[in-house]
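Q: Here's a chain of 579 amino acids. Please give me its 3D structure as tokens.
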Amino acid sequence: MASLRMGRAWGVGVALLLAGSAALAEPNEATPATRAAQQQVTATLPLGDRADVEDAQRGLIAPLPNGVIAGTSGAAPVWDLKPYEFLKAGQPADTVNPSLWRQAQLNLNNGLFKVAERVYQLRGFDIANITIVEGDSGLIVTDATLTTQSAKAALDLYYQHRPKKPVLALIYTHSHADHFGGAGGLISEADAASGKVKVIAPEGFMEHAVAENVIAGNAMSRRAQFQFGTSLPVGERGQVDAGLGKALANGKLSLIAPNDVIKQPYETRVIDGVEIEFHLVPGSEAPAEMISYYPQFKVLNMAEDTTHNMHNLYTIRGAAIRDGRLWSKYIGEALDRYGDRTEVVIAQHHWPVWGRERVAAYLKKQRDLYKFIHDQSVRLLNHGLTATEIAERLKLPPTLANEFSTRGYYGSLSHNAKAVYQFYLAGTTLIRPISIRCRVLRRRKRRSTIWAARPPCCSGPAMIIRPGNIAGWRRSPASWCLPIPATRKHGRSAPMRWNSSAIRRKRRPGATPICSPRRSCAKAFRKPQRPPTPPMPSCSRAFRSIWRLISWPCGSTPPRPRASISWSTGPSPSRSRLL
């Protein structure tokens, strides 16, 4: 029987997969509603601003040859930018948001770029960047992209145009694979083990790198395929961009353990004649992360704490939830400490920003973005809203919404709002200690039915939905699904007070509350009162018990209520049960 069930499950899964593949093979044209939405974006945003275009192309020395990184032994290319040639069209396609189209064009810039004197970046070889600082006798490399092939191709391009100095130090900014996976293409494990090459990382790097990318690596890899759309065909109706970069490279990953760890919140090191101030920012974009400042070149490297888009506080591929409050705090500290002496701010994704005033404005926008998401989500959850309701209600102010560097190309406002809710209230979001659920049935011909738990401050049923739409109430049915405290007699779980704001919500036509909002919650622990029983004929005790069951008023409680009372408009009282 078990094998039969498994076979059926596999059959259904294969059928769905084939159906999905067939659907992907023939993408649809943009609908009129989609075109109207794209036109609205075009009219709202300053798409003619070319400041980012100039910054993304500034300092280009040489592009990636042919836009391709070849695979080994005739295998498929590790990295190929040729399919993205469609982005060179002047006007965005109807199927792509004009703002995303602009971001995808900016991420198409690739090659070796000069940022400042002795500071270079290799961008467009993978989703992440490689930063190289030329020391007195060697190279100080920051991050290594995702694969060894991408890292080696980037270093080879650098050596074609700059002196071939050895790599003396490799710095990991944080514990995500797209920043350390290509280390094997830059240095060897033997050089790191012997100390010939310094491998510097923030405290806790190895612990979190293994926890996120090895222990849960298989699951995260599967989820990353959905997040980055790796199975989608590249094109205007398929995969267009990944927000932080074009896509993920296909190749070999490596992990070379650090031999030098930054432990203090602020540490200054001199490496090959270059002074570097390290600032630990744990719990921001990664559990172990640090930014760095180069006073000699007036360059601030913000790692991945500031990028040219809204980042995610919770990534769909799976990772520890980020603290938006800490994230904003770290950006503010960097602005206060380095802002007045920084001429260029770079990151390990996207392009730099030049000019002291522009740097300060950019950092302020990024700081305010994560602070706004955190504070407003916390405000709404304290008002009793659920994660879904917060995500639907929260909107960015115009000062942030109309800024390209704060738009949701990678993260989204709705997901980030839910992440803040889960960060503080994960127990009530993921785990329900009492098995009480709301269940919304399919609409019937003339009415809708909801099964819900009764609030303890009311003796009547929880809610009646008259013929009409459930959306007539401002709060979703899930907001009524709060754990109901049991009576002391039965000794269930710890009591919880009913959120009376859920009862006081303004009604709309089509819904009528039965419970009174003025009833005191002091009756929460009293035994629920039963409605009067119908008259019974004088007969045997067994017959009277059967009479109670079959003649109990429709919509009332069963004869022996336990911790809560349920109600439905179904034709039979036996269907009025909690899940």
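Q: Can you summarize the key feature?
A: The chain has 15 helices and 20 strands.
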